Structures are given as C-alpha cells and as structure tokens.
Amino acid sequence: MIRSLVERYIQFKCWWIYGRHYHSNIKPFELLRINPNDVEYFCYKDCRKNFNQPDYIPEVVGGNWDKEIVPVQSYDLYRAIQNRFIKGSDWEKTEFHDRITNELSLGKTKFGCNNIDEFEYRLSNIDSLYEDIKKNGYKRQREVEKTGDVYTDRVPSKRPPEINEITINITRSGEFVLHEGRHRLFITQLIKHIDKIPVRVKVRHEEWMQKRDEVIQNKITDIKHPDFDHLV
After folding, report:
1. How far apart are CA 40 and CA 115, in angstroms?
2. Residues 164, 142: Cα–Cα separation, whole Å
3. DSSP state, 154?
4. Whether residue 68 has pLDDT greater than 50
5. Cα–Cα distance between 144 and 149 in angstroms, integer?
6. How far apart are CA 10 and CA 208, in angstroms?
7. Is 79 within 8 Å of 181 (Cβ atoms)?
8. What is the pLDDT of residue 155?
9. Do the beta carbons of residue 167 and residue 32 sit within 8 Å?
C-alpha cells in the first residue's frame, strides 16, 4: 500500500513539473537497455549542482550541465576496479584506497564509511559483487530485492526497486552519463559477455527532450537510440 502511494507520488510529481510540457512521456520507472561500455562519462559535483530534484524524481534540465561531465577514466574508483579485476592488484595498492583511507584518518566520512574497517568491508562486498555478476550475470533490482544479493545496499522498501537501478543522464546529443551505480557499471564494463544492462534515466537535457518530441510528432523511425525505442 505504501509503495503504491510512493509510486503515484513520484509519477505525479514528475508529470506535473516536467512531463505535461512534452509530447514524449517521461516514465519514472521505465528502464532502458544499453551497452555498459556506451557510458563514457560521469556526472560529478560541478554537473550535479545544476539539478533540482532528489535522485528518485526524473527531471529535464537545460543549460550546460552536460559540458561539465568528466571521463570515467579520470575517476580513481574506475581505475581501481580495473586494476583489481583485470590486473589482480590488491585494493591497498590503488590510489583510490590511498585517498579514502587518508580522508577517513582525518575523521571524514567517505564512501559511506566512518572508519577503515567499514571501508574494508565495503571493498570485500565489491569483490563479491564482481564474482556474482561474472558467474550469474547481471540482475535487475527487482530480482535482487527478492534474493537479498550484494548488488547494492538494502533497497528502501517504500520505493519501487527500479529507483535503485544504475542511473544515467542523457546529454543534448544523446550521450549517456553515469549518475549513480558506479560499482555495478564499472564491473559490467569489464565482463565481456554482458552487452546490455537495465538503466533508469534521472536527467534528460532539455534539447534532447525536444528531439524526443520531434520523433513522436513526425513519427520518425529511422533514428536508432535506446531512448527512442518505445516512442513510436
């Protein structure tokens, strides 16, 4: 009952603020299937400051936020996961580990952790996550919710599990930008037999929404993009 009310609230708020202004529907819980290696950029602090809604509310945002994205290769967690699972390096030998442990020693909360022990536990969960995805394939959050696997921290029971999927943003030119779900995305990029994963869209650029409307109004069918698949 509570989850149903939460779903309706999210759907109505998304429609009232954004959806009613466009011909192409914005469906908060709709998942796109994309190649994980098509996500080459990450939305970091300078990018996120342009957004207005909490992560569970999709939104349409104009301006230059998509000019402030950074390559995922520049993120030390990305490089750490590459080194860990391709080269077999110890976590302790990565710059990511050095950065987080240094900041934890200064009393900061980092990576969702308050101390080194919590951080090491999280890293062991990433190891387990990698092995599970490599062996069993990638699972949607609705499946994970039923089995209690290690894909993410516990999904809030009052929200639909789709909220906790890997989340992307779409730029004015249709590029995919990582918003949330770093570990899962970076891991799936390493595993060759995974060529499609489900993702939820958090932000679409205003100019991209105009292109979606053009697709619907003109019944265009020859433009291939995962975000157009269900429009016409």
Report:
1. 31
2. 9
3. P
4. yes
5. 6
6. 22
7. no
8. 47
9. no
Sketch the domain layout of the chain as residue ranges: 2-11+27-228
Mean pLDDT, range 70-86, rounded to an integer? 96
Asked whether the predicted pLDDT for residue 181 surpasses 70, the reply is yes
Return contacts of 170-174, CB within 8 angstroms, 24+ apart: 170/201, 170/203, 170/204, 170/205, 170/208, 170/227, 171/66, 171/69, 171/205, 171/208, 172/66, 172/205, 172/206, 172/207, 172/208, 173/66, 173/208, 174/208, 174/211, 174/225, 174/227
DSSP type of residue 113: B
C-beta neighbour count of 25 within 10 angstroms: 13
CA distance 124 to 160: 27
Segment 136-143 shows an average pLDDT of 93
Task: Identify the pLDDT of residue 206.
Answer: 98
